[in-house]
Automatic annotation (TrEMBL):
Keyword Electron transport: no
Species in which this protein is naturally found: Gemmatimonas phototrophica
Keywords: Membrane, Transmembrane, Transmembrane helix
Listed GO MF terms: ABC-type transporter activity
Membrane disposition: Multi-pass membrane protein
Subcellular compartments: Membrane
Protein name per its UniProtKB record: ABC-2 type transporter transmembrane domain-containing protein
Entry's transmembrane regions: 25-42, 171-195, 221-243, 264-288, 300-317, 324-344, 350-367
Residue ranges the record marks as coiled coil: none
Length: 399
């Protein structure tokens, strides 16, 4: 049996170990049921109409415009002439509140208790006042149209083809990145359980007597990546089906996604995400090989390391052209998150995605080799975790 045949057999064993098709079917069924119940309850809550609150208006003649409609509020005009009378009615619970107009552009709202509609009153009054002032301006129809028409600016680039992407491309890029992050966190738990569990049960020593540690680690990484990918893909497809079918069943308009205009950028994002997932799995496999007990080891906190590049990407959304963004876009540990931001928000030279992919592939290979070397010695250690100096010495040693 060749080495890659051994890797394939180990990968299939790890895949079947964590992917139970019956459990996946149960999970999908539960997700469909929960989605249907949530959609039904959401429709009921949306259609449910509470009794509108009666709110008195005192001094409406000072406004200069009609009382605007507010969802959940029924204005009571000219019934109460003074604020004390309105306060007495509020205390008697005959009205929910009173809007006392102090003058043009100012009023105060008196309530018996806090209400959700109170914030909508200020917005509605502001919009009504602005509309009244706009109508009173001595402008003809053409001038009014010109004031409400936005200034049109068409952006084009000369030196580089790609620039700011359309909404569909941004949406698909976000979906790819979010899916990659889900695969990571869905698979990290299985990765730690698969490596540290065997170490605690002391059965791996017998297996690595038949195959090399690198072969064993390669098979584990491939199998666990496949298991995480299948599990995440099944739930993603189920969620997409629910999102498409449920609105039609409930009588609402289903969402529509237009075709992206920049498939090349999406292909680069997909390639970087796949390599990034492989790199982080290899990195975490090396960490797991040094852990003696995952329940008490402080190194389990290193599971949060992949979150840091995502945070950096969000901070660079408004500054994608800085030298730091360019550096992080090709740095292997951050390129999975930062390069898509630059592809979406600015023009990127052709060599930058190529360099990022090459460095990311090199880092994936290096972490995979490091995981095999650390696993070869770390799996035989019990009772203590190797220090960073010991781990570095193992990496420098040849097989």
């Amino acid at each position: 049996m060749t080495r890659w045949q051994q890797v394939g057999r180990i990968a299939r064993w790890e895949f079947n170990r964590f992917v139970k098709w019956r459990q996946q079917a149960y999970g999908i069924l539960i997700m469909l049921v929960v989605g249907g119940i949530s959609g039904g309850l959401g429709k009921m809550a949306k259609e449910a109409r509470s009794k509108p609150a009666r709110v008195a208006v005192i001094g409406s003649d000072r406004l200069g415009f009609a009382m605007p409609p507010v969802d959940g509020v029924r204005w009571v005009v000219n019934q109460f002439t003074t604020e004390p009378l309105a306060r007495a009615a509020i205390s008697a619970d005959s009205i929910a509140g009173a809007l006392v107009v102090d003058g043009p552009g100012a009023a105060h709202l008196v309530l018996r208790k806090r209400s959700a509609w109170s914030a909508s009153v200020a917005r509605a009054m502001t919009a009504a006042q602005q509309a009244a002032l706009y109508t009173a301006l001595p402008l003809d129809a053409a001038q009014r149209t010109a004031m409400t028409t936005p200034f049109a600016v068409e952006v084009s680039t000369i030196t580089l083809k790609n620039g700011t992407s359309d909404s569909a491309t941004r949406l698909f890029t976000g979906i790819i990145l979010f899916f990659g992050v889900l695969v990571l966190f869905n698979g990290f738990a299985s990765l730690f359980a698969g490596i540290t569990g065997e170490k605690q049960q002391r059965i791996t020593e017998q297996i690595i007597a038949m195959v090399s540690p690198q072969t064993w680690m390669d098979g584990k990484i491939l199998g666990l990546v496949g298991a995480a990918l299948v599990g995440t893909l099944l739930f993603a497809v189920t969620g997409l089906a629910v999102a498409k079918v449920l609105p039609a069943v409930l009588g609402s308009t289903p969402f529509a996604i237009s075709a992206p205009s920049d498939p090349l950028s999406l292909l680069i994002v997909l390639l970087v995400t796949v390599l990034g997932v492989g790199m982080w799995f290899s990195f975490m496999a090396a960490i797991a090989a040094t852990i003696d007990d995952p329940n008490s080891s402080p190194r389990s906190a290193m599971l949060l390391i992949p979150v840091l590049p995502m945070g950096l990407a969000f901070t660079l959304l408004s500054r994608p052209d800085t030298w730091l963004a360019q550096l992080l876009a090709v740095f292997p540990l951050t390129s999975m998150a930062v390069l898509p931001v630059r592809l979406l928000m600015t023009s990127v030279p052709w060599w930058e995605p190529l360099l990022a992919v090459l460095l990311l592939a090199t880092a994936t290979w290096a972490f995979r080799r490091a995981a095999g070397k650390i696993f070869a010695i770390g799996i035989l250690m019990h009772g203590k975790e190797p220090s960073l100096r010991e781990t570095w010495r193992w990496l420098r040693e040849t097989e």
